[in-house]
Structures are given as structure tokens and as C-alpha cells.
Amino acid sequence: MTEDISGGTVGKALAVLDQVAAFGRPVRFAELLSDSGYPKATLYRLLQTLTDQGMLTCDPVTQAYAPGLRLVRLAHAAWAQASLGPLARAELDALSARTGETIHLAQLDGGQVLYIDKRNARNPVDLFSAAGKVGPAYCTGVGKAMLAQLTGPALEAALDRQSFHRHTASTLTTRADLFRDLETIRHSGLAFDREEHEPGIICLAAPILAPGGQLLGAVSITTTTARSSLAALADLGPALRDTAARIAAAAAPWRFPYRPG
Amino acid sequence: MTEDISGGTVGKALAVLDQVAAFGRPVRFAELLSDSGYPKATLYRLLQTLTDQGMLTCDPVTQAYAPGLRLVRLAHAAWAQASLGPLARAELDALSARTGETIHLAQLDGGQVLYIDKRNARNPVDLFSAAGKVGPAYCTGVGKAMLAQLTGPALEAALDRQSFHRHTASTLTTRADLFRDLETIRHSGLAFDREEHEPGIICLAAPILAPGGQLLGAVSITTTTARSSLAALADLGPALRDTAARIAAAAAPWRFPYRPG
DNA sequence: CCGGCTTGTTCCAATATGTGAAACCCAGTC
DNA sequence: GACTGGGTTTCACATATTGGAACAAGCCGG
């Protein structure tokens, strides 16, 4: 199921790593075997190598594999360097304090939304716990905010990767519908999620754009229809734009080796 | 400089990954070349592969490599599964609320302290730590708390990996000194950091032990000599022990594929 | 403008590595 | 005691990796 064009060994190893991580729980050899498509012996050696390397841990009694601590180490470095996370932290805190709502910071990765950081509606800081999660782009505020900034082949490629699965009654399920919404978003610089991903959950998102116009990521304010409304969210637009601009400013001095797509 | 016994390709690739991550900033090919010991062509292909795989990003203009977003993705899974993080969260929040001081959660990884989570003090001080970061074991509260629980070859191995670099006047710089302190810690179940790592920073740590006595990790309360004292910290001992015990309890039902070392 | 320098990329034959079918082992279980 | 289903090991074979060396592409300083 996990497929890479990679003939290389490391490609396979990393695919296995992804697979184990994707399970979200310790996973036994046999489970991986059926899903991976690799022959028994190959998968076995791959797992062996990865555990030797500390990328995976294997409970000797359960014989279940889980991501290893080395990954946690690398994760930190990745988050600190490859993402907007550290640069945006202060601004997210500020926006969280000002609005009291849930805040998301995301980047575009392979046509999908990769959440980088988050502030919960109530609780203040929690580090990169929620970070690293991936979600769909076509039906989330941050996703649409970012897609709207893409053009030409990059946009095409990203749209091709959308599943357009219907999550709620208001999910945009066709490329045409999405494209129309993206037009609006591009002009307004703000994207609404009108319960398109989860019923009762609405959100307002703004893209984070480098001075040159290059897309860096997106911020969003999320709330519920029970507690707020699209109209009320719209009032937060300026604050949100402001936050996005400040993050962009913080990122400006940095040569950002990041190509969204 | 980065050395692995690994003859395997993935081992080398991961070593390179570590290396890039360790730099903490985008790195150019030549810098890696000198430090890695690999021949030019080899390193080149390794980097190529890793960037292809999304584990690294390479700024096309600067030609500088940095950790890639794929690592951020993996981060989530790793933190959620391989660490005490999710299990301890509630307890850390509680302890943070009760004491108002900086709280650290750490695990032992390769003889070093791997910080898993953190709560900031109400009036935050600047100090060296964040989730996923690694630090020395011999001169930190959490480190010593954990080392004290090791015995026999595991302890030897861990001690062998300590650098015993002097950070402050009170740093324990010999194996013998540390060993003596560990004895005390083992008996009391609490470890003090008496400004051993950073001047003015003190801390009290307790190990997190599974029912069977297996070492899982450690929690600590950190403060400054300006604001508090070792004596005052000692008063928090029971609360800290309690927190550690609760985390251990939360972890008990979970088959923990984690061997400290 | 041209050598000389550093930095990154490509070639290619030798070979160390990885491959995977099949055999094997071990623990439950019918 | 034979059977089944995980998990581990073997081994002849294929191929991916290796790394020296040649090549291309800046970037000076003369």
C-alpha cells in the first residue's frame, strides 16, 4: 500500500517508517507484512535495521514496533528548522490571547495541510504535540487559504492530489466548486471553512506570504457554530491578517528552503 | 565525525540526516563533506536520496540542506507513541498549575537526556530546553534522577557516555563524584540540580518508575536561585513524587517498548 | 580576459549490499 | 503429536552502492 518509486534501500526503509508511524499504535510484524507489499525477509531486515538505528523501538515481549526516540530527536530539529513554528510562536500566542479561540498554523506539503502548531481555545502552550498532523486541503480553512495562492502547474498538481471526499453537507466536492471558492479567497485574502470538514466547526484562515508573494503557510482561527458564527469570525479578519503579516515579517530575513506543493 | 558501526546504506543515510539536523541551520554540501568522512560522491547521493524522500529540503538557490517536512510529519507519530508525552500531559499541567514553576518531562536516550515535554513558569526564564531537545545527563536533575535508577552494565554504559564537561563551578566533573551523588539520589528518590548545568538554575527531579521498577523517565521542577532555593524546592518533593507516581500509573497499562540506555 | 581555485555533479567498473524464495524454528492448539 | 501461523535464518543471485577520477560551473585576483 505504501508506495514509492524508489528503487533505493533507504526509500524502502523510510516507507516502512512511515507505515509504522501511520498506524498510531505499536504494530506487529504480520500487520506490516500484509500492508507493505515487501517480501517477508526484506521487511524483516528493514525493521531490524530501523530498530538498530533507533528509529523504531520494538517491545521484546509484544514484538510490536513503534516509532523510536531518535525520531523524536530529529523531529525537534525538523520542526525548529523546516517550519514556520518557532518564528510564529509569539504571534500565535498573541492571537490566541486576543481571540480566546483555537489557532492553527499550517504549511502545504504534497497538496495536503501539515499542521505545524496549534493553540487550544482554553489551554495555553502545548509544544509540538499537535504538530505534524496532516489533513485535507480542499475542505479546511488553512488548506484553501494556501491553495488559493498557488497558480499554474503548482495549483494543478495540488488540485490533482485532493480527494474531494464529502465530509459534511457543505464540503466542496468538485474541482470546479473549489476553484470558484479559491478565486474569491484569492481576492479577499481570507478563507472561510463553512463546516466543510466537520459539522459545527467553522474557521477563518489567512495565507502567510513572503514579501515576494511566495506562499509560506497559513494561520487560522477555529470555532464552533454553537459559540460563534461566520459573521463574528469575519470581524476577526483584520486581526488574523495582521498576525499573518507579522509572521511573514519574522520569516522574511530567513532564506526559506521551502517549496510548497 | 558522525560515526556509526552501520555498514548498511540506511545507517549512513540516517547518520547524514542526524548531521544535518545537528547543525541547527541550513548547511551547505561542503560543510557536511568535511565533517562526515564520506567520499564526495557518496555523500552527494545520500543527500540526493534524502531530499528526494522529503526528509531534507534543499534551497535551490543557497544549496543549503535542512530537515524536511516529512520529518515533521513523523514527529507527531513519534512523540505520540514513543514517549511518555501524551500520558503525562495532564499531570504536567497539574503540577505546573500547583507550583507555578517550569516543569520538564524527560526520557533517557543513549545516555543522554531527551526532553519530551515542558511547561513554562509563570514568569518564564530563558533556559536551555524544549521538547525533542537533548541534554547532558550527568549535570541535570532529570538526568541524574534517571541514571540513579540504572544498575550494572546499563549504568556503566550510560556513565561511559557522559562527557563530564564543566558547565559551572558546581558541575560534577568526575565519574566518582557523580556516582556518589547517584547513591544518594537512589536512596532518596529525588535528585537535585545545584546549579550544575547553568548558573542560577536549580531543580528537583524524580524518576518515573513502572510498577516493576523499570525506569520510564523523569519529571522535574526547575527554578532560579533568585526566586527560590534548594530548601524551598525540597518542600515540593512530595508533590513531585506524586506526579511521577501518577504518570507511572498512567503508563502502566501500556506495553512500553522502551529500553532506557 | 584568463588561469587557478573552490564547489557541486556525473561516470563507471568493482564489489559490498540488499534480495527474497524457501527452509526452519517455536509456541500455541486442534 | 501433527498442524498452523507468526517470526527468524539461510544462501545463491542480482543490483544498488561505492568512490576515484574526470567534468562542469561559479568565483576571484591578477
Structure, described:
The structure is a homodimer. Chain A is of the alpha+beta class. Chain A folds into 2 domains: about 10-70, Arc Repressor Mutant, subunit A; about 85-250, Beta-Lactamase (2-Layer Sandwich). In chain A, about 45% of the residues lie in helices and about 20% in strands. Chain A contains 10 helices and 9 strands. In chain A, strands 6-5-4-9-8-7 form a 6-stranded antiparallel sheet, sandwiched between helices. Chain A has a 3-stranded antiparallel sheet with strand order 1-3-2. In chain A, a hairpin with a 2-residue loop joins strand 4 and strand 5 (about 110-120). The first copy, chain A, binds a DNA duplex (30 and 30 nucleotides) through helix 2 and helix 3.
Q: Could you tell me the radius of gyration of chain A in angstroms?
A: 20 Å
Shape of chain A: globular
Which chains make the largest contact? Answer: A-B, 70 and 70 residues
The CATH C-level name of the largest domain in chain A is Alpha Beta
Quick tags:
Arc Repressor Mutant, subunit A; homodimer; alpha+beta; 44% helix; 261 residues; Beta-Lactamase; globular; DNA-binding (chains A, B); six-stranded antiparallel beta sheet; DNA-binding; three-stranded antiparallel beta sheet; 2 domains
Secondary-structure map:
The structure is a homodimer of 261-residue chains.
Chain A: H1 9-23, E1 27-28, H2 29-36, H3 40-52, E2 56-59, E3 64-67, H4 69-82, H5 85-99, E4 102-109, E5 112-119, E6 134-135, H6 141-147, H7 152-160, H8 175-188, E7 191-194, E8 201-209, E9 215-224, H9 230-235, H10 237-251
Antiparallel strand pairs in A: 1-3, 2-3, 4-5, 4-9, 5-6, 7-8, 8-9
The structure holds a DNA duplex (30 and 30 nucleotides).
